[in-house]
Structures are given as C-alpha cells and as structure tokens.
Specification:
Elements lengths: L20 H8 L3 E5 L2 E4 L1 H20 L3 E2 L5 E3 H7 L1 H4 L5 E4 L5 E4 L4 H11 L8 E10 L14 E11 L2 H21 L4 E5 L12 E7 L5 E6 L4 E4 L19 E4 L6 H8 L7 E10 L2 E10 L6 H8 L3 E4 L2 H6 L16 E6 L8 E7 L2 E6 L1 H4 L4 E4 L9 E2 L2 E2 L1 E15 L1 H5 L4 E2 L5 E2 L2 E8 H11 L1 E2 L2 E2 L10 E6 L3 H16 L4 E4 L5 H11 L3 E6 H7 L1 E6 L5 E5 L3 H11 L5
Parallel strand pairs: 3-7, 15-17, 17-20, 29-30, 29-31
Antiparallel strand pairs: 1-2, 4-6, 5-6, 7-8, 8-26, 9-10, 10-23, 11-12, 11-23, 13-19, 14-15, 14-16, 18-19, 21-22, 23-26, 24-25, 27-28, 31-32, 32-33
Helix pairs in contact: 1-12, 2-6, 2-12
Length: 576
C-alpha cells in the first residue's frame, strides 16, 4: 500500500481514556476508532491483522476436521429459556423485542443456538463426533468497558462446539482441540502458557477446562506457576499452601478486651501477636436451588477467601458475604465473630492451612472481645470441615516447590460442557443398539479481537508496537528519502520487486523528512523497516534494513534485498 493513497492517520497525543499500552498504541497508531464506550471500528491496518489471526485459526481447525458455520448474532429468547440462562445471564445480555413483541437478544455466546442445530440435524451415533465453529460478532453489555479491545462490549470471537457419544470420545477430541490451540498461538508468535482453570457456570462439574494466557504486565488474571514442573493454573484454581507456619501450643481458652479492634491486623498489632496466630472469620451465604445456607469460613489472619474455590466446594448456585441483618439473626457481631457460638443454620469451614490442633486468637462473639487459646478441634461449637479455600499468594508452595506469580490475559478457553445443554434442551442421538442417549458437548473459544490487543500489550516499547511477523498488518515499512527523480524511480522499482516476491509492503511515499518518517515507522511497528536514503545509496549503493524487534540493522546491496528480507521474516516467524 502507498501511504500517500492510504487511509491512515496517527495521533500525536494519547487519548485520556486509554489506560493501558495496547489501547494507547492502537489509538495513536490509527488501528481503531472509538465509536462509543466499548465499541470500536477496526481501521484498515487492524482489520488486516484480524484477518491473519482468523486465517491461522481456520487453518488449524480445518486441520483437525472441524466445520465452519455462521450462526445469527440475534437469537430468540425461547432457546435461552430452555436452559434457564435467560434470567441467569443478567444485565450483560442485551435484550430486545421485534415488531411482533418477540423477545430476542444480541448473542453473548452460542451454546443454545448450536445445541438447537445439533438436535435438529444429528440423530445417530454414526454422525459423531462432530465439531462446528464460527468466527462471529458477540455483544456483552459490560458495566465498565475498558482497556480498549481487551474488555469491550462488542467483539469478534471464535466459538466452537463439539458433540460426542461418551466421555472417552470427548476426552480424545479435547486433546485434539488443545493441540490445535497450542499450534494457533505458536504460529502467531505469542508468548503464552496453558493453565488449569475454573469452568465456572460453563463447564460440567469436575470436567477438564484450560485457559490459554498471554503473559503481559497489564493482564487481569493472576497465574500461579511452578518453575521446572510445567504446572500452571489460574489463581482461582491453584491449590497452594504456606511454608514456615509456627503452630502455637494449646492453651486454656480465655477472653480478653479488644475495644475498637475488629480486624486481625488491628488485634495482632495491639497485642503483639503474629498475624498467623489469629483466625479471620467470614460468614458467607450459599444458595443451592431454593435452599439458603450460611457458613463461617475460618482463614489465617493474613489470608483471603478464594470465592471461586468456595463456590465450587459448596456446589453453590450463588455465594455472597452475609449482610448485617443476617449476622444479627445468627447471633453474630461483626468484627468479633468466632466459631464458639452455637447458631442454627450455621456450619464452620476451616481452611486447609489452619492447624486444627494449634492455638489461635478468634472473635469471642461479644462486642469488644476476642479469645486466646482457641483450639479448632477442641473449642469449635458447630459442625465443621476442613477444605482448601484460601487465595494463593507470593511465598506459597506446591508440593514443597516455590510458586511464581505471573500476570496474564486470557485469549482462549476450552471446556468440557458434559450434558449441561444437551440434557436441558432435549437433544438425543441413537446409539449402536438403537437407544436414545443424551450426547456430551465440548466448547472452545478464542477472543479474536482480544488476541490482537493482547499481542500488542505483550510486545511493545516506548516508541510503539512490535508486531509478531505472522499477524503484522504488513511485513515491511519501506521509506524513501529522496529528492531526485532518479532515486524515486529506483524506489518504485524496489517496491515493485517486493510485491512481485509476495511481500506485503507499506510504502511511505509521502515525501516526509526522516524524523517524522522514523517515528511513524516505530509507532506502527512492522517487523522490518527498509529505508532507501538517497545520500547513502549514491555513496555506497546500500539500503538500510532494521529489525523492529531486536534493533538489528543491516546494510544491503539492492540485489540482496529481497532474499535477505525473506530470510529475516522466516526467522521472525512469518511463515511459522
């Protein structure tokens, strides 16, 4: 593309609402245009990169026998009501009515739609397994859209769904799709790790689910890794423990005054206690179906509750902290709670890091009082269990090995859905004996626009974007510094030779000076910068080639230009 004829404009100033590097650079480099909060137009260069991402995704899915379809963006409420998700999805779902007052929504995901396709087209085991996927628009009405394309309201996503006769078949295909995802992100040249994840409301209980995370400082997810072991998990899933906890010997239970000292930190500081010799009491409401339960969760004083682990352990539909009126009804006093008070509808859960035979300080269930010498196994007045409920943190270990925490951006997620949707929507197939059974499903997503933004978040510097070669909008930024017609003619010939060789070139023929030209080149961050400078070329016959990622600079004769550039692009992963 000739820049003098192209649709491209950079910004000198960073927009005020652009908080993280990828958002700032995509706006400044003319990749996206903000239409409204969380809604963006993909401008020509971003669109080229998105198409390259999609091409890689398609090739790897086609390689394992998946079939591409396209489902409607707007779906009828009836499908969502069959699974109960019309009410569960809440305000994130944009609901509308057509002129006949029929309820519809702009799809945030498509499990119901594809299950409807499956149940109306597949009736025999001979048609299985099968995987359908699409690359399409989604809409989720985020309450606070931010970070540009990383958390927008409208986005492009690859969502795939497989159907299987049994768990063995699902497991086999799961490994295929897992391998395809690894190949996809490797081909894109991205630094990623695969982590064990929580499937939340999507995956079947206990089923496999993994996230594909790009390592980036601005990532919203915290990842737990154990170097040298290959283990990695989202912090919501990681079962870590603590080192060097020093248990206190058992002692007599004894209440003492703690006026205005409601937190473990306040009590420990006021009475010279180590924070791990105190126990934090949290009361949580748990809803399962129509039943409501209350649990007092006991953690070491400086630990935090992992609500995802807690919800999964309770097999709950919803969990939340108990409110003031609920605590009062249970006979508990906020800031001074402990498991020494017998209360109906209340059970106790101790975190796995709590030594049930050690001595701790807990709330005494009296205003302004705590108790020393509380031994969980001896002094708990309610029924109790011990579970892994804490949130992992720096300094933790797994199997004696220290963990390393990293920040990540989730760009892909694979689930085993089980019969969650096929059962609720009455999808059945006939097995080899002619008996109708409920098939199992898998679900596989990649955030296409999110991957674009995450790749920039992962790879940039103070001057601009550093594109991975496989998904860069163009291979080469070709700039010309020339005054004479003769040099301009040579530039045209070089440009044509690039195109003839199948290279994608952004030809800066605007006639700018080197300062502005180089700033724009660094900002857009294409893999290679080629500069034909009239003075240097006339003196030495050489053309400068600079690798954006490494800063390596080469001086090449014209006849070596195309061959060397192809070699460099190969090294950078253009044709991975």
């Amino acid at each position: 593309m000739r820049l003098s004829q192209g649709f491209w404009q950079t910004l000198k100033e960073t927009p005020n609402d652009a908080e993280i590097p990828s958002h700032q650079l995509m706006m400044r480099a003319g990749l996206i245009h903000k239409t409204a909060g969380g809604l963006y137009t993909y401008l020509p260069m971003a669109f080229r990169s998105l198409k390259k991402i999609e091409k890689i995704i398609r090739e790897e899915h086609d390689r394992i026998g998946c079939f591409e379809i396209q489902m409607p963006v707007v779906t009828p409420a009836e499908l969502w009501k069959e699974t109960g998700r019309w009410d569960v999805m809440g305000p994130q779902m944009l609901r509308i009515k057509d002129r006949a007052e029929r309820e519809l929504c702009v799809s945030p995901t498509n499990e119901e739609s594809v299950t409807d396709v499956f149940r109306k087209t597949i009736n025999s085991y001979k048609q299985l397994p099968v995987c359908l996927y699409q690359i399409n628009t989604k809409f989720r009405d985020e309450i606070r859209p931010r970070f540009g394309l990383l958390r927008g309201r409208e986005f492009t996503m690859k969502d795939g769904y497989s159907l299987h006769m049994d768990k063995d078949c699902l497991d086999t295909f799961y490994q295929k799709i897992y391998g395809a995802y690894v190949a996809i992100f490797k081909r894109m040249g991205l630094d990623f790790i695969v982590v064990e994840a929580d499937g939340g409301a999507m995956a079947a209980g206990g089923a496999k689910t993994h996230e594909f995370q790009l390592i980036a400082d601005a990532g919203e997810d915290t990842l737990v890794t154990v170097p040298g072991t290959g283990y990695a998990a989202n912090i919501e899933k990681a079962p870590t423990t603590r080192l060097n906890l020093k248990p206190q010997p058992t002692a007599d239970y004894n209440e003492f005054a703690t006026p205005n000292q409601k937190t473990c930190e306040e009590v420990a500081a006021a009475h010279g206690l180590h924070i791990t010799h105190t126990l934090k009491s949290l009361v949580m409401q748990v809803i399962r179906g129509e039943k409501v339960h209350y649990y007092m969760v006991m953690l070491l004083g400086d630990d935090q509750l992992n609500e995802v682990k807690f919800k999964n352990a309770m097999n709950a539909d919803h969990v939340r902290a108990a409110q003031a009126g609920e605590l009062e009804a249970l006979g508990l006093i906020k800031g001074f709670m402990g498991p020494t008070h017998q209360a109906e509808k209340l059970s106790v859960l101790f975190d796995a890091c709590v030594d049930l035979n050690s001595s701790y300080v807990v709330g005494a269930n009296k205003e302004g009082f705590h108790a020393k010498g509380f031994v969980p196994s001896r002094d708990t007045k309610l029924s109790f269990k011990q579970l892994d409920l804490r949130l992992a943190k720096d300094g933790d270990v797994m199997n004696g090995q220290p963990i390393v925490m990293k920040k990540g951006i989730e760009v892909g997620h694979v689930f085993q859905l089980g019969d969650k949707y096929t059962k609720s929507m009455g999808a059945t197939v006939l097995n080899a004996q002619g008996k109708a059974i409920t098939p199992l499903m898998g679900c596989y997503g990649i955030g296409v626009t999110r991957t674009l933004a995450a790749s920039i978040e992962q790879s940039h510097d103070q001057d601009g974007i550093i594109w991975p070669a496989a998904i860069a909008p163009y291979d080469i930024y070709f700039g010309v510094i020339a005054k004479t017609d003769e040099t301009k003619k040579i530039a045209e010939e070089i440009y044509e030779s690039f195109l003839k060789a199948g290279l994608e070139v952004l030809y800066d023929d605007r006639g700018m000076g080197p300062g502005g030209m180089f700033k724009d080149a660094d900002l857009i961050g294409l893999p290679l910068r080629v500069v034909l400078g009239e003075r240097d070329f006339n003196a030495t016959g050489e053309i400068e080639v600079k690798v954006r990622k490494t800063g390596e600079t080469l001086k090449l004769k014209r006849e070596a230009l195309v061959g060397t550039i192809k070699e460099k692009l190969q090294t950078l992963g253009k044709w991975a």
